[in-house]
Amino acid sequence: MSETVPPAVLTIAGSDPSGGAGIQADLKAFTAFGCYGMSVITALTAQNTTGVQGVHPSPPDFVEKQLRSILGDIDVHAIKTGMLFDAANTRVIAQTFRSHYADASSRPPLVVDPVCVSTSGHTLLAPEAVQVLIDELCPIATLITPNKSEAELLLSQSNRAAKITSLGDMIAASEKLLLLGSKAVLLKGGHVELTLADVEKLAAERPDVTVVREELLADNMEILQVNEQDLTTRPLVVDVLKEAERTTLFVSPRIESMSTHGTGCTLSAVIASLLGKGHTLLEATRQATAYTHVGIETAFPVGHGHGPLNHLHALTQRVIPPPTASNPHPLTRILIQSAAKTWKEYVEHDFVKQLAQGTLPRECFMHFIKQDYLYLKYYARAYGLLVAKSSTYGSIESATQTIVNVINEVRTHKAFSARWGISEADLAATPESPSTTAYGAYLIDVGLQGDSAKLIMALAACLLGYGEVGLWLKKEATKPNSWVKLKGNAYLQWIEDYSGEHYQNAVKLGLETIEALAVADPPNALRLQEWSAIWEKCTRLEKGFWDASMKLL
Amino acid sequence: MSETVPPAVLTIAGSDPSGGAGIQADLKAFTAFGCYGMSVITALTAQNTTGVQGVHPSPPDFVEKQLRSILGDIDVHAIKTGMLFDAANTRVIAQTFRSHYADASSRPPLVVDPVCVSTSGHTLLAPEAVQVLIDELCPIATLITPNKSEAELLLSQSNRAAKITSLGDMIAASEKLLLLGSKAVLLKGGHVELTLADVEKLAAERPDVTVVREELLADNMEILQVNEQDLTTRPLVVDVLKEAERTTLFVSPRIESMSTHGTGCTLSAVIASLLGKGHTLLEATRQATAYTHVGIETAFPVGHGHGPLNHLHALTQRVIPPPTASNPHPLTRILIQSAAKTWKEYVEHDFVKQLAQGTLPRECFMHFIKQDYLYLKYYARAYGLLVAKSSTYGSIESATQTIVNVINEVRTHKAFSARWGISEADLAATPESPSTTAYGAYLIDVGLQGDSAKLIMALAACLLGYGEVGLWLKKEATKPNSWVKLKGNAYLQWIEDYSGEHYQNAVKLGLETIEALAVADPPNALRLQEWSAIWEKCTRLEKGFWDASMKLL
Hints:
12 strands, homodimer, Phosphomethylpyrimidine kinase (chains A, B), phosphomethylpyrimidine kinase activity (chains A, B), UDP-N-acetylmuramoyl-L-alanine:D-glutamate ligase, elongated, hydroxymethylpyrimidine kinase activity (chains A, B), Ribokinase-like (chains A, B), Thiaminase-2/PQQC (chains A, B), 11-stranded mixed beta sheet
């Protein structure tokens, strides 16, 4: 979510301390949809899942003050209103909005959830405020989102009385509500019992009406059918979206649940979030309906009454932080830390220390060079698998370049070995030690078993470890009275190779490739654990490789 | 996050309408750490990133009412307090907490952030309230989290005056603060300039002090070194955690940033979240420090002054909803919907329709049977790759069982073909059609290129598609005057095989395997798109397979 700037979205509503509704639900919904949430509080309430125990309204001038603090400083991408409580607050909000956005074309989308009565029956909007909402707020709204009783109240107050008991009533009511001046109306059907037969009948009569069956099975999904109940009689919830040019029905199965506290708040908050992100009203409503529906179905128990829906279901937590200026390699750092002890035993191996002091016995180094010659064949082949696993020419080219580098390294090996009296035939005739086979064959195994990410993890311990050894020795060598002896050291070339610019550039490229994996497709705990296990194993195999050379002593 | 019940975590603090601090920041932090957030509001403020424009305190009796609504209904796992504004509110909170949790052992962790003055210099805690905080709140706190000036104020108020300018001062102050009665003290070092030299000097003098260098490079990380600045002089932030039995320093690089609004609120909110989840105070502090640090570094621009840190950086949005009772197959549904047209052309293919009517020419069916015989060899081999890619005996066994099933299916093929006058030699000698090679070789390609999840996607179109055809024909056949002719249909066995219980059980198992992939490792948009692309391609190859049989006409 950190890649793009989250839109700033504002709720103007009451506070529900128990966290299920009001600005608390709105802020959770804004966060769930990657928005920057803000909230002007119109009233405090004392409430919980069993009901409303008290209301403490905010003075209208302080509502205005909160709103002006925000509008005067922050670029707001969408606004929703919820419980406004009284006429004065309703009026001051409408007037502040109009006066701040004097130019109507500069106004952000405004979603008005005309909250009038709580689920538990508590009046949340004074009767005289309803008229102010109709006169001052509806005309500037992008969308109003009444439920059945709110729609009936708004219509009766504006002399368009209508009882809503059928799908036809809902559509007729949505058309009348549009006359109150908002750009669109979402009439929520949670309190109107309907079936698929009702929807199909209406769809046949009204070909201008579009039906979105997001939560119901579409054609060619017989295999997904699990509910044996006759689809045509199964109870449904139908929300009607009335825009100037079209009518859309959002159809979903009705869920019997006690966890519906804050459903209306959440729905309008999600719509505002998605409008703030630039989605169309239709798409925003579709996603908001689906999100709210899953929120009810995945609700966890809270309190003793009507619990809240689950706002967390659409989120997962990143286990690797995004790269930042002070920590540009979060994944590599986690890998190293997760196997810190083995990593240290590898990069600060006695083999390395003796090599740096120039005291490493010749036969140990020769053993290493011969086995490394055999190992590098596996290593090149593993990069061949990486080529085969690539999905872009870029990754094909980069893995191929590494194979070319390995082949060149092997040439150096041969020249180097020749100087120490070992012929190419000697190299090829060397029996492979178990530690070489273990490491080499494991690379090939990972390459066959997993995706390219896993293979990159397997190949990293070698690439990065030799780079670490090179830099460490270089750093140690510059210290006064260093234990590292470069002068006259028979292994000087080896140290220079791995601390040199050429190899270190390959290390930098490798780090970038590794970090890019975590950014492009952030792993969850499970996948990170798989990656760490491969890294740890290869680190151990690297240590084993040097152990084998030292065992000759 | 929906797998376990999120702990309910409560903040008792002021409201920041601009969303960067106060209960708004706390609710965002609770959500980021997968907790169920609640909030008692002690005061409304009108503020933004440039400063505080006004404060409207809540009456103490209404603060108590909010708190009692929550405590009386909901099982609270952790509480944090922030801005309490005045003595009366501070007192009523401490007293309500004590009286509700009369048994001290039943008390949830209580983190007290002693907010006294805003970053912009606005007094957020009346001077007389400081004494109440010391006398009534500190003794029941699990942790208090003062910054330098709050620590100095608390100490001077309790006659332990101390100026804090060095790391030694910080540790001494944390020890004195512990005497105020909380179980632990986190003294935040944001306003004390320190370097690594200071930390190393202190660590040498005080071996009892543990240093956590979460955000700094540890040993054996030379390759991750990107900042050329001398580490020993680089400015650091050090937070001191003083517990009864130990002292821990959390060291991180100092970041020059304007986006620090709400840092203290967020830090204490995250600590409360993690204590609510059962983490130790040390681990909670470590994670909270790291989260807040990354939040500052990844902050996006909001407002004209001191903007908020980024609360969203640790979250990613799920692109596949969790399975629910009304939608137990969200991934499969998305796959089918993403390729709806091709899927329909496949499962309602003319080949299928003519077969169901019994009018399919014999030569078309023979072509299909012969090519299917050749295709099934690829299919079995692809499951062999799935065996090779397995990481558990369970998945090895399940993929192996499918190979056994395919071998049995091939036997049926042979017997079937024999009845139609085709010998096994004829089957084996049949030239492979391009559509067979395309489909078969693509399965093997996916199996070599990707991980087991991708291979399962590739294998699903065949398994599920034939199941869909079977169920569809069975359903159509039961309709009055159905176009499907079962009686006397030469292909009856084929229809019965794929609509039968044996095959449909395999379909159910396949659906479970597919859905389990999305639950175990929820894909992001990128990976879902890769999966959908494979599914769509195989759906198209299935259609092409039947096209080839019909082209004979």
